[in-house]
Design a protein that fits this description.
- By secondary structure, this protein is of the alpha/beta class.
- It has a single domain, classed as Rossmann fold (3-Layer(aba) Sandwich), CATH 3.40.50.
- 33% of the residues lie in helices and 22% in strands.
- The chain has 10 helices and 7 strands.
- It has a 7-stranded mixed β-sheet with strand order 3-2-1-4-5-7-6, with helices on both faces.
- The N and C termini lie far apart (48 Å).
- The mean pLDDT is 97.
- The structure holds S-adenosylmethionine.
- S-adenosylmethionine (SAM) binds next to helix 3.
- The site of S-adenosylmethionine has 20 residues, from helix 3.
């Protein structure tokens, strides 16, 4: 029986480990979301962008009592909706592409994106697009695979990372990169960007738990063992749209 209980993530620890691992599309989404330390008022409208199978959407609905729209490209919304019903939450599941979102301007109080922004959010013009869907004063929060150094500065993708993710590591940036990228636009304010303190360790713990759960060695294990926290972790980035 895999144990995902962690003292530093008391809210995440309430969730069934087998269910969480069955929802897997990337490492420890609830730990990442809880690690963002977000504050919501019940009833707020929250977009979970790139919500995958929906573990984070369930967490947002249950822990904060917010209204959640779970938008994802690869997962059939019928499957996500079945997960929400089974978990006893009312979450709107929809298929959506991050550049053509089907929402009214200034609809959301918050947009949360866990381990998905790296697929669509690194272009210079994306923040301007996404923030149109936030109310003035609304929160934007992402957790995205990050590196302690920019690949551009290293001049190469470290071999153990390149072997597993290839050029996609170009979208894994430092916390400083994210801070500058968002602050310079003045489209958002109160920007906070940091590498999750336990990012590499948590990622490895998830890969080990998943390996035990599925009986199949997780594809990230070798990369994480080789890394030992030298480069890899998650960047946690939050900001607010000006009022
Ligand atoms: C690594 S998975 C993470 C899923 C979920 N947030 C989690 O942590 O379990 C990345 C998700 O990003 C979504 N995604 C990738 N590109 C996207 C795009 N262009 N528009 C919307 N979603 C996208 C995929 O559908 C996928 O579910």
């Amino acid at each position: 029986m895999v144990d995902l209980n962690r003292a530093e993530y008391p809210r995440s620890s309430k969730y069934d480990a087998a269910w969480l691992l069955d929802c897997d599309m990337g490492p420890n989404p609830l730990w990442l979301l809880e690690g963002l330390n977000l504050q919501f008022e019940p009833g707020m409208k929250v977009l979970d962008l790139g919500s995958g199978k929906g573990a984070t959407s369930v967490f947002l609905a249950k822990e904060y009592g917010v209204q959640v729209w779970a938008a994802d490209l690869w997962i059939d919304p019928t499957d996500a909706a079945a997960n929400f019903t089974a978990q006893g939450v009312e979450v709107t599941a929809l298929k959506a592409e991050a550049h053509t979102l089907p929402f009214a301007r200034e609809f959301f109080d918050a947009i949360v994106c866990i381990d998905a922004y790296e697929y669509f959010g690194t272009a210079d013009n994306y923040l301007a697009y996404l923030t149109t869907f936030l109310k003035p004063g609304g929160q934007l929060a992402i957790a995205t695979p990050g590196m302690t150094q920019e690949v551009r500065n290293l001049g190469h993708i470290p071999a153990h990372i390149k072997k597993v993710v290839g050029w996609e590591a170009l979208a894994w940036h430092t916390a400083d990169w994210w801070r500058f990228q968002w602050e310079i636009t003045e489209l958002v304010e109160d920007v906070s960007a940091r590498m999750q303190e336990s990012g590499w360790r948590d990622w490895l713990a998830w890969a080990e738990a998943l390996t035990e759960h599925t009986g199949i060695p997780n594809g990230h294990l070798e990369m994480l063992h080789a890394d030992q926290g030298e480069y890899l972790g998650f960047a946690l980035v939050t900001a607010r749209k000006p009022r």
